[in-house]
């Protein structure tokens, strides 16, 4: 009897893990041999996914709303470090548009997330 209950418990746990979707966009980061770990105090993560998907700290946004959403992330006028997390399949033009928008709105500390090979 206990074996049957244990089987049912494991079955429902495994099923529920696949039913609940993970938060955020799934991306495959490009690799770079000169990657370094960044641990900024005040940061915001911009995720650029396929099919023109764009998120700021896990919240869907449009490129026109990008700077206003990032200004909300600033704390007490501190410098905000922006990390761009882009899928390797995203067109370079889309990445340039996002980075150009950031530069035009006064964000100077911009990093591109990569993974070590």
From TrEMBL:
Q: How does it sit in the membrane?
A: Single-pass membrane protein; Single-pass type II membrane protein
Which superkingdom heads the taxonomic lineage of this protein's source? Bacteria
The protein's predominant localisation is membrane
One short Pfam family name for this protein?
ExbD
Q: Does the keyword Protein transport apply?
A: yes
Location of the protein in the cell = Cell membrane
Q: Which terms are listed as keywords in the entry?
A: Cell membrane, Membrane, Protein transport, Transmembrane, Transmembrane helix, Transport
Q: Output the InterPro entries linked to this UniProt entry.
A: ExbD
Q: Which family does it belong to?
A: Belongs to the ExbD/TolR family.
Q: What is the name of this protein?
A: Biopolymer transport ExbD/TolR family protein
What is the source species?
Collimonas pratensis
């Amino acid at each position: 009897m206990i074996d049957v209950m244990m089987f049912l418990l494991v079955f429902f746990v495994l099923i529920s893990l696949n039913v609940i979707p993970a938060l955020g966009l799934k991306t495959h980061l490009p690799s770079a041999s000169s990657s370094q770990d960044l641990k900024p105090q005040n940061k915001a993560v911009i995720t650029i996914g396929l099919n023109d998907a764009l998120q700021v700290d896990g919240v869907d946004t449009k490129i026109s709303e990008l700077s206003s959403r990032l200004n909300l992330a600033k704390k007490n006028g501190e410098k905000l470090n922006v990390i761009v997390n882009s899928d390797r399949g995203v067109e370079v033009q889309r990445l340039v548009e996002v980075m150009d928008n950031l530069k035009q709105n006064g964000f100077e500390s911009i990093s591109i997330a990569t993974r070590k090979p």
